[in-house]
Design a protein that fits this description.
- The chain is mainly alpha-helical.
- It is 56% helix and 3% strand.
- It has 8 helices and 2 strands.
- Strands 1-2 form a two-stranded antiparallel ribbon.
- The longest helix is centred in the middle third of the chain and has 17 residues.
């Protein structure tokens, strides 16, 4: 059994997991594309009736950090965002009648969304590959003692 203190400690560590600015922008762009996909894909635009709300951005941010923490990392990688996208977005999207009539599922929409939105996207138009901190930014070097303790029990 996990104690309340351990659970609160884990939550605090998860919230301290580092996410580079360009990954925050990528996450934001994924959510915004569900609302206005025409700039990325005409196909996505035909498939969506209502996109994810701003709360989805918060949920995807927190779950990506938690996913990274569970993997034993002190930073978020693109794979963490992509791994959590289906669970976060699946119930937040309303597909168009046309999409449903053609057998398009929310999972198919999310797969195409991840495939369509470029990973190096920057809101300021700069190329993230030129970011001097690299694709993931600098890491915080957090003490993940809770992960080690949890794995040994």
């Amino acid at each position: 059994m996990i104690t309340q203190e351990a659970l609160f400690g884990a939550r605090k560590e998860v919230l301290q997991i580092h996410m580079a600015d360009n990954l925050e922008e990528y996450l934001l762009q994924l959510i915004l594309t569900t609302r206005k996909p025409t700039g990325h894909s005409a196909e996505l635009a035909q498939w969506i009736e209502y996109g994810a709300s701003p709360r989805a951005t918060i949920a995807l941010d927190r779950t990506a950090r938690a996913h990274a923490w569970l993997q034993g990392r002190d930073y978020v990688a693109p794979e963490d965002i992509q791994a959590m996208a289906h669970d976060v977005l699946r119930h937040r999207l309303i597909l168009s009648y046309e999409a449903e009539a053609n057998g398009i599922t929310t999972d198919k929409f999310i797969d195409e969304l991840i495939h369509t939105v470029p990973l190096g996207f920057r809101l300021d138009g700069a190329n993230s590959m030129n970011d001097p901190r690299g694709m993931y930014g600098s890491t915080l070097g957090l003490d993940l003692h809770f992960v080690r303790d949890r794995k040994s029990t």
